[in-house]
Amino acid sequence: MVRSSLFLTVGALLALSSSWVQQADAQQQCNGYAELCSRTYDKVSYPTTHNAYAFNPPNGLATNQINNIPTQLKDGIRAFMLDAYAAPSGNPKEIELCHTMCTLLDGGPLSDILAQIKTFMDANPNEVITIFWENAADLKPAQFQAVYTAAGLSPYLHAQAKGATAWPTLAQMISSKKRLVNFIDSGADATVPWLMSEYDFVFETPYNIPKGTAYPCTIDRPKDQRKQMYVLNHFISGIIQLQGNTISLPQPEAANQTNGPDLISHINSCQTTFKQIPSFVAVDFYQKGSLTETVAKINKVKWNGIVADGASSGTNGTTNGATGKGVNNNSNGAAGSLLNGKSVVAGFLATAAGAIALLL
């Protein structure tokens, strides 16, 4: 009877330890990887969607993505490029997400997207999210403040002082709950400190890359100014003129190549040129090719294997070290490693095993 009770105790301890391992792993993971927790925000690379809101109508003239924002979040996208326009209704407390003009592509009100982001952040407390704003309509920071406040996101907003080069670690951002970072390309001011001027912290490579041309590794915005982080703009387009506007046409049929071998080559080239990893790797049609796997390799972590919804596999490569100011459309590269992060429970398991042995 005693031995039977002891076996039950062993089983209970093992079940408890297994649960503890799982909880410890979850607590130690930051943006899906234990190794990222100790890294500062500026030393991590983030999968990024260009015009993340532009997923509807499917196969539309200006559609840059296939999946909606909740699906993008589920698939591991952690940075989003959004374009801000005045609401067609004229409501100053709302912002519309449009592509060049709302008659071309209207992604709906910002309030809807922020509600979806908040739902994800509430349910996933170990994730750090970034939003890049193109302030196309020259909206005031107070307008952004009103929409974010109404969405209930105020507790999550991180503010980094201009000139402050010491970013917190992902673990610190998660602990403080200040884990939603917002950059805006123009119009920032001190009245809304969390809506940060992008080019105080980040530079971008050229974004207007015609299909069939080289992928550049030059500083486009702000012109010739190095910053602490950079956006690797990696999407190709065709060009048409519409109502006096120059319209960039996304190229979904090329996305497996663009987001696969070409992406790896572009990253290798820019890492060589800038001597730093791209902080934000921005693509169209992220579910094609190998974006999240490639970013995991940049971060030197073992890819967690999450496959994008509707993914169409691209060609994966090994490190090839392309160099120079730009690369053509065919190449390959990248590599990484993993630490398991389970040592936190080793002492407990050893102690429990020793106690059980004594009882037996």
From TrEMBL:
Q: Species name for this entry?
A: Linnemannia hyalina
Q: Which SUPFAM superfamilies match?
A: PLC-like phosphodiesterases
Query: InterPro entries of this UniProt entry?
Result: PI-PLC_domain, PLC-like_Pdiesterase_TIM-brl
Phylogenetic lineage: Eukaryota, Fungi, Fungi incertae sedis, Mucoromycota, Mortierellomycotina
Please provide the Gene Ontology terms (biological process) for this protein.
lipid metabolic process
Q: Which UniProt keywords apply?
A: Signal
Gene Ontology molecular function: any one: phosphoric diester hydrolase activity
Is NADP tagged as a keyword? Answer: no
Pfam families from the entry? PI-PLC_X
PANTHER family in UniProt: PLC-LIKE PHOSPHODIESTERASE (PTHR13593:SF140), PTHR13593
Entry superkingdom: Eukaryota
Q: What is this protein called?
A: PLC-like phosphodiesterase
Q: Could you say which residues form the signal peptide?
A: 1-26
